[in-house]
Specification:
The chain is α+β, with helices and mostly antiparallel strands. The chain is about 20% helix and about 35% strand. It has a 4-stranded antiparallel beta sheet with strand order 1-2-6-3. The model has no long low-confidence stretch (mean pLDDT about 90).
Length: about 100
């Protein structure tokens, strides 16, 4: 890794992550495959200026799906690594907040 900006790839926004944001102060990011918990913590603290309490890391496996037009054609989606970051009670990340 060259910088902390290479660690975080994109935020993951789903119904489950919206629940984690609102009730548990947890935010979910897709991260680089070779990043560690300490690198993820440093990246989130530096980029968003928040206090990170805990980082959990999950390697999601690759999945096979089918195309809608031709049900016989199978496609393999690659796996990725995601991090669930727990913040202090008063901290928020504005990209997850939505339109105000």
């Amino acid at each position: 890794m060259t910088t902390v900006y290479d660690v975080l790839r994109r935020p993951i926004v789903t119904e489950k992550t919206n629940y984690l944001n609102s009730d548990l102060h947890q935010y979910v990011f897709e991260v680089a495959p070779n990043s560690s918990k300490s690198l993820i913590k440093d990246a989130v603290e530096k980029i968003f200026d928040v206090n990170v309490l805990r980082v959990n890391v999950v390697n999601t496996p690759a999945k096979r799906t089918r195309r809608a037009r031709n049900r016989q054609l199978r496609i393999r989606r690659g796996g990725y690594k995601k991090a669930i970051v727990t913040l202090a009670a008063g901290d928020t990340i504005p990209i997850f907040e939505g339109v105000k």
